[in-house]
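Hi there,

I know you've been waiting on this one. I reran it after we fixed the sequence typo, so this is the corrected version. Both the input and the resulting structure follow.
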Amino acid sequence: MNSEFTIAVHSLVYLANLPDKMASSEMIAENVGTHSARIRKVMSGMRRSGFVNTREGSGGGYRLTIDPDTVTLADVYRVMAQGSLIPSWCSGNPEIDCAVGSNMNTVMYGIFCTAEKKLEEHFSHITISDVLTQIHEC
């Protein structure tokens, strides 16, 4: 899992909580606890996928364009982090003469793929509004 997913969810929930559903990258960065350049990078992915739009200039920023009641964490995960659960390297070597070493990579890849599918299924039942509701209940 990468931190961009968490930043994206936090940013969308923050925007959903605002009366006009709009904030600058600096405002979002302060709320998330990171640098505004990192927010702009994450939000550019959200913009390309239609979650937000931008307004330039004074009073500009990011505006939520999705319905927080219908967009799920799975939707955000697919844009920002799909495949990140699978490690970029796995132990083993298919060329060696050992059942463990020669098959570990294939078996672990299958395990991680199954785990990612289950994670996406879990996320598909949690909307941006659900996260906001849980926050308000804290």
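Quick highlight: The chain has one domain: 3-136.

Best,
R. S.
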